[in-house]
Amino acid sequence: MKGVVIKSTGSWYKVLCGKQRFDCRIKGRIRLDDAKSTNPIAVGDWVECEQENETQAVIASIYERTNYIIRKAANLSKQSHIIAANVDMAYLVVTVHSPRTLLSFIDRFLLSAEAYSIPCTLLINKCDLCTSDTDRKIIQNWIEIYRKAGYEILCVSAHTSENIETLYRLMAGKTVVFAGNSGVGKSSLLNAIAPEAASRVAGISKSHNKGKHTTTFAEMYELPNGARIIDTPGVKSFGLLDFEKGELSHYFPEIFNVSKQCQFHNCTHTHEPQCAVQRAVQQNEIAPSRYENYVSCLIDENTKHRK
Ligand SMILES: Nc1nc2c(ncn2[C@@H]2O[C@H](COP(=O)(O)OP(=O)(O)OP(=O)(O)O)[C@@H](O)[C@H]2O)c(=O)[nH]1
Ligand SMILES: [Mg+2]
Ligand SMILES: [Zn+2]
Predict the structure, then answer these.
(1) Is 201 in the pocket of ligand 1 (CB under 6 A)?
(2) Ligand 1 and 187: CB distance under 6 A
(3) How close is the Cα of 70 to the center of ligand 1, in Å?
(4) What CATH code would you report for 77-231?
(5) Closest atom, ligand 1, to C-alpha of 234
(6) Ligand 1 atom with the shortest distance to the CA of 158
(7) Closest CA to 170 of 241, 121, 116
(8) Rounded to two decimals, what is the model's pTM?
(9) What are the distances in angstroms from CA 299 to CA 146, 255, 264, 268?
(10) How far apart are the first and last CA of the chain?
């Protein structure tokens, strides 16, 4: 029987086959394509199961993925971690307050989502906390940066329910993944959208103003309108997988658009003369922060020259 993985702890899996849920282990010698991954089977994967009894089954094989979102398990690690598979889109949850999300984190996430062809929308959560002029300016600035880059960006609040209905409507019938740093309110948003899901939520650590890594395993929740939300554990950083230097700019949509007008077709947009990208940055058509983060990814130790 075919089912979708709705929870994965790495050693056992919860699989939904039709309306029935099974606790599953992986069958002894299953063939896995991606042995470098810490979790070869991820939430969102379609699998073939063999039923053992009322509640248990074994995963015998895994169906090919349409896409997946992946990051390096740790910066120096050779292993990767698949956050979710077979998703229609990703919502990157970010916050101005408690904690403040770094733009470098956002841009690295967006880069990976582009590389794996996953449309991404940004959600600025905890907007209820942003009452000061300074906070409002930051929000305006973020909206400008990411709209210019071609991304949708929406202010929401899990506490006051701002834009929660809109979000629910936007997700109808889609499989979406909620990603972001720990403590930005991914699980809280899920609970606001689907109170029956009741995912665990915890406070922000007072000493560090950071999340407490409350959600430990990714899990998929089904909503009455056919949406499926994958709530994921917060990540601290987003380690890049091995990109080639030349392909990197393809994953910054606004840089890629303008780069067609550069003098050299293999322009890296760093030192070359007649670079349309650098000109666009000077004219503020491309946000300086986006350009800086592009350059920082370019010189990242994991980004390679073509072999
Ligand atoms: N003021 C305010 N607080 C919020 C909002 N959303 C979440 N919080 C609080 O932020 C804290 C962290 O929320 P969680 O939902 O656990 O965050 P998370 O992103 O799931 O964190 P991890 O599971 O650790 O990745 C909790 O104390 C929430 O009550 C919001 O919209 N406004
Ligand atoms: Mg959580
Ligand atoms: Zn250029």
Answers:
(1) yes
(2) yes
(3) 23
(4) 3.40.50.300
(5) 25
(6) 31
(7) 121
(8) 0.93
(9) 23, 17, 20, 11
(10) 43
